[in-house]
């Protein structure tokens, strides 16, 4: 799987990811020009879980150009439906007991805010301003909880994100460097 992390600043969002992919006992390292963080018109989408979901988010997602009432309205009413459509078009979405689902989870940075989106397309934001997903996610989250404070700068966040990903890689076989870190400012 992978390790994703997110740190929410006052007017910016940091998203980070490792580059290891494991499948049926085989270990892959992503090519240099690839990342688990897709970028679409300034929106950052970091994915963990099935590689197929990440491929679709990177190469099959079409985000509508719309004006929304709020950032949350855009995420709920436009971005998530676009992701669902891309997954459905690719034959990736499943329906279990009447609920649409998939095998990918992701962190989205939109307008300097982080949204954690689960496999049922629900989203949450955490008041502690730190996020981690994937097989090494809980290790990285614990590391972030000890490192990140309330008045964090972008420089500190980048340093601590790299440290948290490194700690996760030491204790999770599905996580490895090099690490990708992206910071998005609010509009």
Number of strands: 13
Global structural class = alpha+beta
Identify the CATH homologous superfamily: Aminohydrolase, N-terminal nucleophile (Ntn) domain
Please name the CATH architecture: 4-Layer Sandwich
The poorly predicted ranges are none
- What is the mean pLDDT? 93
Strand content: 25-35%
User: How many domains comprise the coordinates?
Assistant: 1
How much is the radius of gyration in Å?
Answer: 16 Å
Explain this structure to me?
The protein has helices at residues 51-59, 71-89, 137-147, 154-171, and strands at 3-8, 12-17, 20-23, 26-29, 37-40, 43-49, 94-96, 99-101, 104-110, 113-117, 123-124, 130-134, 180-185. The longest helix is centred in the middle third of the chain and has 19 residues, at 71-89. 37% of the residues are buried. The chain contains four helices and 13 strands. By secondary structure, the protein is α+β, with helices and mostly antiparallel strands. A hairpin with a 2-residue loop joins strand 3 and strand 4 (26-29). It has one domain (3-185): Glutamine Phosphoribosylpyrophosphate, subunit 1, domain 1 (4-Layer Sandwich), CATH 3.60.20.10. 30% of the residues lie in helices and 33% in strands. The chain starts with a strand and ends with a strand.
Give a topology summary.
Layout: E1 3-8, E2 12-17, E3 20-23, E4 26-29, E5 37-40, E6 43-49, H1 51-59, H2 71-89, E7 94-96, E8 99-101, E9 104-110, E10 113-117, E11 123-124, E12 130-134, H3 137-147, H4 154-171, E13 180-185
Helix pairs in contact: 3-4
